[in-house]
Amino acid sequence: MNLLYLFGVFVLLASAKSHEEDVHTIQYTTENFSDEVSKKNHFVMFYAPWCGHCKRLQPTWEQLAEMLNEDDGNIAIAKVDCTVDNKVCSEQDVTGYPTLKFFKLGDGNGVKFRGTRDLPSLTTFINEQLREGDDGESELSSAPQAMHGLLELSADNFDEHVGKGKHFVKFYAPWCGHCQNLAPVWESLAKSMEFEEDVTIAKVDCTQNREICNRYEVKGYPTLLWIEDGKKLDKYQGQRSHENLKAYVNEKMGGSGSAEKTEEETEEVDRQQEVEEAVENLTGETFEDGIKSVTAFVKFYAPWCGHCKRLAPTWAELGAKFAGQDDVRIVKIDCTLEVNKDLCNNQEVEGFPTIFLYQNGKKISEYSGTRTLEDLHDFVKKHVGGHDEL
């Protein structure tokens, strides 16, 4: 009896420790589950602390929560401990752990997730659930219809529409909090440009039109592109106020607010492009060939990940540092792309960003240090021999 008691205490302590780092996931109980789930869309994990599958899913679930749990978002990522709040789990017909269910706003029954428990599959499932029954901007006709000057484009009409003329296009995902914040500003911009014949303001839902967004190399949401005669000419990276966006459109149209770039500005743009091109963008199809016979420092990331976004400029600078060194490659892998899904799973990527170092095609180390340019640079140099000054 004493041994069983001690074992039980050990299990409880271990399970408490395994979940203590869940700072973004919302924990619901019998007392608040029904009330909270009725307020917005929810994706809920029903789990038991001792469950091995639950423990393995935990970091991915927390990553999903970090991505989507925003105060003004339309979805919440939550969990319920069935060993404590078994009444809720019984009502939800939970018979195994973990059980993952998506609850649409106003629906208390939920839809079970039955796919593989990796981040790309989970986000795809969320996108599908949010699209179903959405009578808003996801219902499209073959010809784009302007609503106060704003066009909703799809695979049926995109190429024909942007093939001629000038277009400012927002590529977005419905669940993206930043996209939701931008939406009224983008509508206001479209309305203010409604009677301009030489430009259109448009938007594309990337969860429904993945091929278009991949073709235009959309890596994060929202992405704002200036397109002329079907070709991407520029990516807007300024402030997202109505005034800044309208000034940008005027500049691109050659109206007020336009100005020729100075020689210094042109040089800076060229330098930045060289920096960005120094990082190799491999896929599941090119990965093995891309890292064989070299030392490869590989960043596995997701475009929506805040930590990944903060690391991106440093990673680009790191690529530039090794640009002239044939035996070193600085690489990035977008794990949200379907072509990379199996690769990221096989490489045991459990969170973003994950950084591995490979030599001659074999993984030899995971980088866990600080993400400064100096420390990243020194780590690579240590494995290829010698140290250089930055």
UniProtKB/TrEMBL annotation:
Molecular function GO terms recorded: protein disulfide isomerase activity
Name under which the protein is recorded: Thioredoxin domain-containing protein
GO biological process: protein folding
Keyword Repeat on entry: yes
Annotated organism of origin: Brassicogethes aeneus
Alphabetized UniProt keyword annotations: Redox-active center, Repeat, Signal
Entry GO terms, CC: endoplasmic reticulum
Gene3D superfamilies xref list: Glutaredoxin
InterPro entries: PDI (IPR051063), PDI_thioredoxin-like_dom (IPR005788), Thioredoxin-like_sf (IPR036249), Thioredoxin_CS (IPR017937), Thioredoxin_domain (IPR013766)
